[in-house]
């Protein structure tokens, strides 16, 4: 589903930084990959390159057979296939939950209002907040807002879902409800790339764990391998700090 070959991404403010350095990986359909690593290691940049919020400087990225770095590829088309959920929810504050989830369905997917409304209720059922359809985001808890953000991404019927620290901004008591929604998605076969510090989620749900540091993938393995036998010194150090 996702094939990344030798991508590089540099930033030049204030001096040259390799946010991604020769990153390659293959992610199969239905696979759940958890990306971990210290702050500044390139995790967000990696996700953002997968949906073209950032453009890699060089290398190749194929998503479901589409070469997303090919200048002739329609970026909006790519974004329709790749859903993204951020730490900070990013809901439209002046729109209701229903409007937030309907908007792209109607504008981008050109669904009739009746169809997008029905789809929105189905998704709100899925994330457990059908009763919140007509309220504004500010009237919701952080966990509820994040579930709306997930429903909104799913409304586009993406082939891949990217999550960038989706529970990091939440009060601890709300982390579980968001992870539960993500676990359900994983069980249903969604292809997911998840940046998270929730190692319980990684253990339980991930097919593979990727460890990044200084813009490089330093280790890839199953959770069993990773948490018990990682030989990479920096990965061991990182784990000892967060576990
Ligand atoms: P992580 O998500 O693992 O914390 P990031 O991908 O956000 O890491 O950042 C990787 C590196 O790229 C860091 O050194 C960061 O400062 C730098 N970086 C990321 N985004 C930008 C940007 N828009 N401008 C300049 N530097 C950036
Ligand atoms: Mg980040």
How many strand units? Answer: 10
Q: Secondary-structure element sequence?
A: EEEHEEHEHHHEHEHEEHH
Name the overall outline.
globular
Q: What proportion of the residues is helical, as a percent range?
A: 25-40%
Bound molecules: adenosine-5'-diphosphate, magnesium ion
**How big is the Rg?**
18 Å
Give the overall average pLDDT: 95
The proportion of residues in beta strands is 15-25%
Tally of helical runs = 9
Largest sheet: 6 strands, mixed
Terminal Cα span? 31 Å
Structural class given helices, strands, pairing?
alpha/beta
Keywords: ATP-binding, Nucleotide-binding, Transport
Domain ABC transporter: 2-239
Family: Belongs to the ABC transporter superfamily.
Organism: Desulfobotulus pelophilus
State the gist of this model.
With 243 residues, the protein is α/β, with parallel strands linked by helices. Helices cover 38% and strands 25% of the residues. The strands form 2 sheets. The chain has a 6-stranded mixed β-sheet, with helices on both faces. It has a 4-stranded antiparallel β-sheet with strand order 2-1-4-5, covered by helices on one side.
Kindly describe this structure:
The protein is an alpha/beta fold. Helices cover about 40% and strands about 25% of the residues. It contains nine helices and ten strands. The protein has helices at about 45-50, 75-80, 95-105, 115-125, 140-155, 170-185, 200-205, 225-230, 235-240; strands at about 1-10, 15-25, 30-35, 60-65, 65, 80-85, 160-165, 190-195, 210-215, 215-220. The strands form two sheets. It has a six-stranded mixed sheet with strand order 6-7-8-3-9-10, with helices on both faces. Helix 3 (about 95-105) crosses helix 4 (about 115-125) and helix 5 (about 140-155) runs parallel beside helix 6. The two termini are about 30 Å apart. Magnesium ion (MG) binds next to helix 1. Adenosine-5'-diphosphate binds near residues 40, 41 and 45. This is Amino acid ABC transporter ATP-binding protein. Belongs to the ABC transporter superfamily. It comes from Desulfobotulus pelophilus. Keywords: ATP-binding, Nucleotide-binding, Transport.
């Amino acid at each position: 589903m996702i094939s990344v070959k030798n991508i590089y991404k540099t930033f030049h403010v204030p001096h040259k930084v390799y946010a991604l350095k020769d990153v390659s990986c293959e992610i199969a359909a239905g696979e759940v990959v958890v990306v971990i690593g210290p702050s500044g290691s390139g995790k967000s940049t990696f996700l953002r390159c997968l949906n073209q919020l950032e453009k890699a400087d060089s290398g190749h990225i194929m998503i479901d057979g589409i070469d997303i770095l090919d200048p002739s590829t329609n970026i909006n088309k790519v974004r329709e296939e790749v859903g993204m959920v951020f730490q900070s929810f990013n809901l439209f504050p002046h729109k209701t939950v229903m409007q937030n989830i309907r908007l792209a369905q109607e504008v981008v997917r050109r669904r009739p209002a009746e169809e997008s409304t029905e789809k929105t209720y189905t998704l709100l059922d899925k994330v457990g907040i059908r009763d919140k359809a007509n309220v504004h985001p500010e009237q919701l808890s952080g966990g509820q807002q994040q579930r709306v953000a997930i429903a909104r991404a799913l409304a586009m019927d993406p082939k891949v879902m990217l999550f960038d620290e989706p529970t990091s901004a939440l009060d601890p008591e709300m982390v579980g409800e968001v992870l539960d929604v993500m676990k359900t998605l994983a069980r249903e076969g969604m292809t997911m790339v998840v940046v998270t510090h929730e190692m319980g989620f990684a253990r339980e749900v991930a097919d593979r764990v990727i460890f990044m540091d200084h813009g490089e993938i330093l280790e890839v393995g199953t959770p069993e391998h990773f948490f018990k036998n990682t030989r990479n010194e920096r990965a061991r150090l990182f784990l000892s700090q967060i576990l």
